[in-house]
Amino acid sequence: MRRLIYSFYLFACLSVVVAxxxxxxxxxxxxxxxxxxxxxxxxxxxxDEGFRxxxxxxxxxxxxxxxxxxxxxxxxxxxVAAVADDGGVPDLIGLCExxxxxxxxxxxxxxxxxxxxYSYVMTHSEDERGIDVALLYQPVHxxxxxxxxxxxxxxxxxxxxxRDFLYVKGLVLTGNGVDTLHVIVVHLPSRAxxxxxxxxxxxxxxxxxxxxxxxxxxxxxxxxxxxxxxADARDRIFKHAPLRLTDDRHEAGTYSFRGYWQWIDxxxxxxxxxxxxxxxxxxxxxxxxxxxxxxxQMPRRTFRGPAYHGGTSDHLPLLLDLLF
Length: 324
Description:
- This protein is an alpha+beta fold.
- It has one domain (34-322): Deoxyribonuclease I, Chain A, CATH 3.60.10.
- It contains four helices and 18 strands.
- β1, α2 (66-85) and β2 (92-98) form a beta-alpha-beta unit.
């Protein structure tokens, strides 16, 4: 009963947000709002044949039940609603660590987020655990032209397969009319993989910048690259990046490891795109908790090891407004 009441309450909030944002500014002068978020293992409860997702089943050590799955979907929706209520509905949302089309369809069509009428595209990569990336988009502000997966040649280098990049092209309304925007969502290999993971991450970064360079060869191409890079701005993977980082240097970061905040999630943009203010972490109170070991705060994650903790994600969302 409590879950039903909460769902009705969130439906009401979303309806108000959609009504407010549809008339907040004249078309053509509004910024394009972009959000990037690693949502920490957004898996359904059904085994996906060919992938190692057994730890996210009701019978696993993690006891990933339908109730916990739906709570996570509701919490993700709640964050998007809160962001929308504080400045406008995100037009583009890059998500990392989503399992499959079933999860994304449920999030867009069956969760309370359906009030915002998002559409989505996603990758179907060779990652052994079945983790992919996706892009939610508002069709009224981003008209989809093309989307495809871009594979990192990890197998050819004798490395473990990693997540594909998601390339998306669409039309946006700017102050000068309609323009094309190229978007890439990434989730580079983790540093937990040791030397192999580091080698794989740098291989993925080289492949990414090659793709960006090929697209920017088109006159006036405007690009946004976002996601979990598993590397901070000082890492050498950004040394020759053809796009500019938008991190807010006054913020500690998006991810906390042993009490140390790090910027490992980023949004990069073309020089031609105006950024009124830097990308900032979304620090909603329910996304954070006290770090009882190291002091300060940390993201309230869904799991601590195999133990269910009940939070939304071990990463904070990253938000950026763009002007063309």
